[in-house]
Amino acid sequence: MSPQPSPSEVPLVSVIVPARNEEASLGVCLRSLVAQSGVSHEIIVVDDASTDGTRAIAAGIPGVRVIGADPLPPGCSGKCNAAQTGANAARGEWLLFTDADTFHEPGSLANAIAEAKQHRAALLSYSPRQEVRGFWEKAVMPVVFAELAAAYSPAEICDPASTAAAANGQFLLIRRDVYQAIGGHAAFGHTLLEDVVLARAVKQRGHRLRFRYSDSVRSRMYRSFAQMREGWTKNLALLFPETPALAGKRALEFVVIAGGLAAFVIGLTAGEKDLAVVSLGIAALVWLRFLRRIRRAHFGSTENLLAITGLPVFVYLLLRSRLSYQRRKQVAWKGRMYSVAQAAAPTAGEVGIPACSKAVQH
After folding, report:
1. Of 22, 109, 328, 339, which sees the most CB atoms within 10 A?
2. Which residues of 127-140 are buried (b: 16+ CB within 10 A; e: fewer)?
């Protein structure tokens, strides 16, 4: 970890927390942000039409400014609209967009600024340590994050010579002037993959990205299987455009492992030792390859072992996400329905008139 700079060396950071019905996690997040030292910062919670105790929790924590999200324009995602509302109200030279389900370790904000400056990054994003509780969270989340680590290589993203670009909206730190230059969240209001699209726009403008896994921030994304199913249904088809091919590969992987173990048991029972040994060997080789991939997702040994049972669920979620976009033409998130046109991420050159709140100005 980088040595923590003195407050005089660090510019003002505006921490923006878009929040919609986040009473279960918001208090912990905000208290961890208020406690940050070594950096001048303001904390802005943007209440996105919450119907629970979100606003009251935020208002009850000293040092936190609470504002309401601007009216949601047609074709704009709620999170983009709330994030842009917060940016419009912010005063900092740097903007940190972070989710209500995150916890920030002491000193992490100052260290993030120092890291961004050290690497001359206009945008720094962390993939937080994921907290998982309950069987399905422990089984499925490592599989998803292993695929993300493979598809969005931090080394390639950090390489200025590579076109690869990505970020994680749970912790996205960006220079204000660069944010303004790309049009802010307003320019990408119709996408549900705003973190990746923002990073792509920053890199296309010739700025450096810094993206990596970090223990200094942790997050519990989902608190039930239903939440996890809704969240990954929204995201997986966008994150992995070759959804059917990936689903087929992972389904085959599970069949080989499970089928090999079944054939091993049958071979032993039937006295076919050669069949049993060969079947076990094939299953073991494929499982070890699978485990090597899962370990890159930075989960514990228990989660790594349980991940094999999450593999078929991941296939189900991939296909469910694809079906939602292709046939149902819409996905649900946070009590709102989004059409395929709203969810799709724009490619280079497709960003036009802002769909969200007016972009942040000086």
Report:
1. 109
2. bbbbebeeebbbbb
Question: pLDDT (tens digit, 9 = 90+) per residue, 164-220?
Answer: 999 999 999 999 999 999 999 999 988 889 999 999 999 999 999 999 999 999 999
Share of the chain above pLDDT 90, in %: 83
- Residue 250: name the closest of 318, 300, 338 by CA: 318
9 CB neighbour count, 10 Å cutoff: 13
CA distance 204 to 154: 17
Residue 338: φ, ψ to 5°: -120, 135
pLDDT of residue 337: 85
In the chain, DSSP assigns E strands to 13-19, 41-47, 64-68, 94-98, 102-104, 123-130, 171-175, 209-219, 330-333, 336-339
Where along the chain do its domains lie? 7-141+149-223, 243-343
Cα–Cα distance measured from residue 238 to residue 235, given in angstroms and rounded to the nearest whole number:
5
The pLDDT of residue 362 is 40
Please state whether 48 falls in left (phi above 0), alpha (psi between -120 and 50) or beta: beta
The pLDDT, as a whole number, for residue 354 is 44
CA distance 126 to 180: 21
Q: For residue 75, give the amino acid letter.
A: G
90 contacts 44 by C-beta, under 8 angstroms: yes
CA atoms within 13 A on the CB side of 137: 14
Whole-angstrom Cα Rg for the chain? 22
CB 187 within 8 A of CB 87: no
Mean pLDDT (the chain) is 91
Going by the DSSP 8-state scheme, the letter that residue 272 receives in this structure is -
d(CA 83, CA 126) in angstroms, rounded, equals 18
In CATH terms, 7-141+149-223 corresponds, of 3.40.1350.10, 3.90.550.10, 3.40.50.720, 1.20.1440.230, to 3.90.550.10
Give the burial class of 114: count Cβ atoms within 10 A of its Cβ; 0-12 exposed, 13-18 middle, 19 or more buried: buried
